[in-house]
UniProtKB/TrEMBL annotation:
Keyword Transcription: yes
CDD domains, per the entry: HTH_ARSR
SUPFAM superfamilies named in the record: Dimeric alpha+beta barrel (SSF54909), Winged helix' DNA-binding domain (SSF46785)
Alphabetical keyword list: DNA-binding, Transcription, Transcription regulation
Species per Swiss-Prot/TrEMBL record: Roseateles subflavus
Record protein name field: Lrp/AsnC family transcriptional regulator
Ranges for domain HTH asnC-type: 3-64
């Protein structure tokens, strides 16, 4: 899908204000409501807009510790990776699971837990028990310097 200037404006605004009313969005991009809504629907239908979500405050939910966990696997086979990924998908503490290169690890996880006891339970009771996991290295986040959900549209193609 080719994006013009107005499509990019719509995407920028929706990334920052996902609950903006169509009338307000139309006013901000210089369209009337009907064409604006058609463009938003086309962006949704194309898959560029993958969904809308509420961003929650982890600390207010009692989740005070974020960790980045590097996981090393014993074998680099599709079956071993599929098994690991299936086991990780069911753990609600895991917000991201990335298959990575350039490190001693195969995966990087971003996890949120209540405290160190909760992390220990996750680590020893679940992560290290997944077949094929041979190494775990954890780093704890001291401060969020930048937290973004908006993608850099000016750096994207189209």
């Amino acid at each position: 899908m080719e994006l013009d200037r107005i499509d990019r404006q719509i995407l920028e605004i929706l990334q920052q204000e996902g609950r903006i009313a169509n009338q307000d969005l139309a006013d901000r991009v210089g369209l009337s409501p009907s064409p604006c809504l058609r463009r938003v629907r086309a962006l949704e239908d194309s898959g560029l807009i993958a969904g809308y979500r509420a961003l929650l405050d982890a600390r207010k939910l009692g989740l005070s510790l974020m960790a980045l966990v590097h996981i090393s696997m014993d074998q680099h086979t599709p079956e071993r990776f599929e098994n690991f990924e299936a086991a990780i998908r069911v753990l609600p503490e895991v917000l991201e699971c990335l298959l990575i290169t350039g490190q001693a690890a195969d995966y990087q996880l971003k996890v949120w837990v209540r405290d160190m006891d909760h992390f220990q339970s996750l680590l020893l009771g679940k992560l290290t028990r997944i077949a094929g996991v041979t190494g775990v290295h954890s780093s704890f986040v001291l401060q969020h310097v930048i937290t973004r959900t908006a993608l850099p549209l000016d750096a994207a193609q189209g």
